[in-house]
Design brief:
The complex is a heterodimer of chains A (507) and B (205). Chain A has 507 residues and is an alpha+beta fold. Chain A is built from 15 helices and 18 strands. The longest helix of chain A has 56 residues, at 260-315. Classes of the chains: A alpha+beta (507), B alpha/beta (205).
Chain lengths: 507, 205
């Protein structure tokens, strides 16, 4: 210790001890001997590096450097000893020191060669204060650019603690939701009333899933919020990640984004898609009906004309039996022709569609929900009751899907028409032991069907929808029957409409 | 002038429809002929045909509207009755504008068909008579020499022989000879009659 003291003896402030001055410096300082050992350390250095004075004196300086830099450092140190001059170390590169606890700290370092009693020493200064300032500056810049980026992307960050309490009062987030900005207690229950009642279950389930220690911690959910101040309805997308400690979620961080515009466009596209589908279906129906009409009308025309020829022949004073015979033969032949045309047409329409395979009816039901969703019929809560390990059925997958999608679509449209808030469709799959068939039930909570409508519901071109063509249920029933099953409307259920269909099990 | 017997021509690709309608029309003692396609009808029908044609609107290859256009192109002016299974308005209007006399939807009642056929045949007769006198007038006027034509033009405008002679720079006697020839060639008995024939041939005063 007395080595360095000597440096200050020539100065006027002799009474001020060297150690006092040395320790008063805010930056950490180490004095290193030419052998590369620590000979002095000030208080700041001890605090920074986590050593006591007794522990650090005599340590090789490489002990304070992370292992991966040690070999390199020895070379640098020898080079510096040959050409000592005052300079910052590392010149621009990040340097790290290793604390006694094994933690690496990033520091800027200055080296000053000192000669005492003809022995060279090196004074190392750790500019921790300057470093902290530059780090703080960098953090401020980074935070500012993040803030700008979030603003540009329309993102608002959220940060909940383990109890779903907002960690910092995010006025922006609350304003976004239309909450009073001066709420004192900012927690999950503050925002709950703003979430659309139909979506609160979805959001809660997503948060539960994200904060489940067994899950992957990811949060991804879309829901509607109702601005409490204006009553506006907005769509929100929340993406986030839960942080866990000791098998428990401690924090839920993420961003929310307003996706209302996007939802409006999506809805528009879905509507257009549905409209095109309807137009196409109408065109197909028109073409088919026109073909059938032609096939029937031609023989009818001939039959009508032949019949009038026959009547005329009978009315003559002397019955024109030659004309009468020819006309009646014509009638019979044309009536027969009309019949066989119809049979041909029907067998043509059914041709090539009937490849039946073994199907897991449960997965077809799940797929039907996806298909319905892709058509824009997803605004309902599906309630599935699927019999586990039900035997495979035998059917044409496309046709069975078509039956299910038709039923889901009808249910959604009925509930939309009736403006039912929490619409729900339950689909039950079970084995009907009485008939030994798979039995599927599709039930909605819509207004149901009155007696008069129910009577005609399966007739072609019967519809209660302004834009419908009334072929959906007629086709569905035909498809169910073509697959060896049946489709019917439950006459007894009082709430909503309930349809049943059956399919044979694979032998 | 040569004319054919007024006949009902049926053009339909359906045998049973041709057969039953032909029977029906034959029961009214109206001559009837049936063809299975537009081409067959075009090949068989004489230029001077009269009566009417019952044409199926929807036929393979040449359809009813195309046949109507082809008849007009060939200057065959027979009235057309269209038969259709699906009488949609825009095509009916198009056919009517092109001169169809009626549009019947299948199946068609006997009463309706016969009344339309009779009306069409009367229309045909009228058109044919008009056509014949027009053609005759054109033939008469065309038979005149250039000088006779000039004399005729002035004569039907009411000029006296003296005026005509002065205007054309010929003698009064020559005008008289020309006029005599004109009256002989056209068969006109007096100048007013000549004016009527000239007008019928399409000449405008």
């Amino acid at each position: 210790m007395c080595l360095v003291k000597g440096l200050f003896l020539a100065y006027p402030l002799q009474s001020l001890s060297f150690q006092t001055l040395f320790d008063a410096v805010a930056d950490a300082m180490l004095l290193i001997s030419d052998a590369g050992k620590v000979t002095e350390a000030n208080a700041a250095a001890l605090s920074l590096l986590g050593y006591t004075a007794q522990e650090i004196i005599g340590l090789p300086v490489e002990a304070l450097i992370p292992q991966r830099y040690q070999a390199q450092h020895i070379k640098h140190r020898i080079k510096f000893a040959q050409n000592p001059e005052k300079r910052p170390m590392g010149s621009g590169n990040e340097l790290s020191v290793l604390t006694k606890q094994g933690k690496e700290l990033e520091v800027d370092i200055g080296l000053s060669p000192i000669s005492h009693q003809e022995k060279p020493y090196t004074l190392i200064t750790f500019y921790t204060v300057a470093k902290r300032k530059s780090v703080e500056q960098a953090l401020r810049i980074s935070e500012e650019s993040l803030r700008l980026a979030k603003k540009a992307a329309g993102l608002v960050a959220f940060d909940f603690d383990a109890d779903l309490k907002m960690r910092d009062a995010n006025e922006q987030l609350l304003a976004y939701w239309g909450a009073e900005p001066d709420h004192t207690e900012k927690n999950n229950s503050t925002v709950l009333p703003m979430i659309h009642p139909d979506d609160s279950a979805i959001r809660a389930s997503a948060i539960r899933h994200a904060t489940d220690p067994l899950g992957n911690g990811e949060l991804k959910v879309e829901y509607r919020i109702i601005n409490q101040a204006t009553g506006d309805l907005r769509w929100i997308s929340a993406i986030g990640r839960a942080h866990f400690r000791d098998g428990r979620a401690t924090r839920l961080l993420g961003v929310v984004r307003d996706i209302t515009e996007q939802k409006v466009i999506e809805k528009k596209l879905q509507d257009q898609h549905a409209e095109t589908e309807t137009l196409f279906a109408k065109e197909v129906a028109t073409q088919t009906a026109s073909a059938i009409a032609h096939e029937i009308n031609q023989p009818l025309t001939a039959i009508s004309a032949y019949s009038e020829v026959a009547l005329h022949a009978l009315k003559q004073k002397v019955i024109d039996s030659a004309s009468l015979k020819r006309a009646l033969e014509g009638c019979v032949a044309q009536a027969q022709r009309a019949g066989s045309s119809l049979h041909e047409l029907l067998s043509f329409l059914h041709k090539g569609e009937m490849t039946r395979e073994q199907l897991d009816i449960n997965s077809v039901v799940k797929e039907a929900f996806l298909v319905a969703k892709s058509y824009g019929y997803s605004d309902f809560h599906p309630v599935l009751q699927l019999e586990n390990n039900i035997r495979p059925v035998l059917g044409n997958k496309t046709q069975v899907l078509k039956i299910l999608v038709n039923l889901l679509r009808n249910a959604v449209e009925a509930m939309r028409e009736a403006e039912i808030a929490s619409s729900e469709i339950s689909v039950t799959v079970r084995t009907n032991a009485n008939i030994n068939m798979a039995h599927v039930t599709v039930q909605d909570v819509g207004p149901g069907l009155n007696h008069e409508v129910a009577k005609h519901i399966f007739e072609p071109f019967f519809t209660t929808k302004p834009k419908g063509i009334g072929m959906g249920l007629a086709i569905s029933r035909t498809l169910a029957e073509a697959n060896g099953g049946q489709l019917w409307l439950d006459p007894d259920v009082k709430v909503g409409a309930t349809f049943h269909f059956t399919l044979p099990f694979s032998p | 002038m040569k004319t054919t017997t007024p006949t009902v021509y049926i053009v339909d690709d359906e045998h049973a429809i041709r057969d039953s309608l032909a029977l029906m029309i034959a029961q009214e003692n109206i001559p009837v002929m049936a063809f299975e396609s537009a081409q067959a009808f075009l090949e068989a029908c004489p230029q001077e045909c009269s009566g009417c044609a019952i044409i199926d609107y929807r036929m393979p290859e040449m359809d009813g509207l195309e046949l109507q256009a082809e008849l007009a192109k060939r200057d065959i002016t027979i009235p057309i009755i269209f038969l259709t299974g699906h009488g949609n308005i825009p095509t009916s209007v198009k056919a009517m504008k092109a001169g169809a006399i009626d549009f019947l939807t299948k199946p068609v009642r006997r009463e309706k068909l016969i009344s339309v056929v009779v009306a069409a045949m009367m229309e045909s007769e009228k058109t044919l008579a008009e056509n014949a006198s027009y053609k005759e007038a054109v033939r008469c006027i065309a038979s005149l020499t250039e000088r006779e034509y000039d004399v005729m033009l002035l004569a039907i405008q009411g000029h006296h022989n003296k005026d005509i002679a002065r205007q054309l720079g010929i003698s009064h006697r020559t005008v008289e000879i020309h006029k005599s020839n004109i009256m002989h060639k056209t068969g006109a008995s007096h100048v007013l009659d000549l004016a009527r024939i000239a007008h019928k041939s399409g000449l405008k005063e």
